[in-house]
Amino acid sequence: MNKENKNNNNKDKVALVLEGGAMRGLYTAGVLDVFMKNDIKADTIIGVSAGALFGINYKSKQIGRALRYNLKYARDKRYMGMYSLLTTGDVMNRDFCFNKLVYELDPFDIETFNNSEIEFYAVVTNMESGKAEYIEIKDGGKDLEYLRASGSMPFVSNIVEINGNKYLDGAVADPIPFKKAIDMGYEKIIVVQTRPADYTKTKSLLPFGLVYKRYPEFIKTAQNAYINYNETLDFIRKYENEGKIIVLRPSEKIKMRRVEKNLNKLQAIYDVGVKDCNANLTKLKEYITKDIVL
């Protein structure tokens, strides 16, 4: 099937776009749990960083899993934090997060994920080109490295090399892949953001040029990421104001660190996601069933 035909086939389908945001992604987890409990169905998910890492539970139909393991292990030094960063070079411990957690401690239902008809894409940033790549995750077990790459934050993660390509956090190049959903031909798009409505990104002062000097294109992308982010927000607001898409974003401000270990805050941001989604259930159901023209 060529790209044009596939895009035409996507016209009446629903795309779910999931922003990242490290532990703020538990807002998205709350939203998705309400989706599953109320049979809100999407045909495709495009997730970035935490949006991808928590979003997989929607396709595997595991209500509550993301919140459960984060509350249980947030304070465990094996999970993520300074201990992992100092001992492995990754703030998110590879062995714990993508081995023990997935297969032993709170198993990810790979079989259900693989048998689902939902298409799932994880966004990664190519270090050489500085551009976003949208990797279809077809096998929840074999493709875990792409999910890890999507959530590998600069400065606190090792570069992830897969098949000779080097990747870091997809949010560097495409933090909210709304335009990608449009390019794929979707006219029904639900965007889940993890920042409140009045948020805008400011220029980063982090030393990308010093740490990543071997990757000039990545540096350019990273240094201009705030421009790209804010332009994407404007684009999303335009479509939202015209009634063409639905956007769910936190209705309450909860100050959180990227690697948050305060269990009350983790529960709180999840609860806001649940509350906001429940408040929009009727709107969501009506949107999915009506005709949209972008």
In words, what does this structure look like?
The chain has 294 residues and is α/β, with parallel strands linked by helices. It is built from 14 helices and eight strands. Helix 2 runs parallel beside helix 3 and helix 2 (26-37) crosses helix 13. The chain is globular and about 50 Å long. The chain starts with a helix and ends in a 5-residue tail after the last helix. The mean pLDDT is 95.
Short overview:
With about 290 residues, the protein is of the alpha/beta class. It is about 45% helix and about 15% strand. It has helices spanning about 5-10, 25-35, 50-60, 65-75, 80-90, 95-105, 110-115, 145-150, 180-185, 210, 215-225, 225-240, 265-280, 280-290; strands at about 15-20, 45-50, 120-125, 130-135, 160, 165-170, 190, 245-250.
Category from helices, strands and their pairing:
alpha/beta
How many β-strand runs? 8
Helix content: 40-55%
Shape: globular
Distance between the termini: 23 Å
Query: What fraction of the residues are assigned to beta strands by DSSP?
Result: 5-15%
Low-confidence stretches: none
The major beta sheet can be summarized as:
8 strands, mixed
* SS element count, helices: 14
User: How much is the radius of gyration in Å?
Assistant: 18 Å
What do the pLDDT scores average to?
95
Can you write the helix and strand succession as a string?
Answer: HEHEHHHHHEEHEEHEHHHEHH
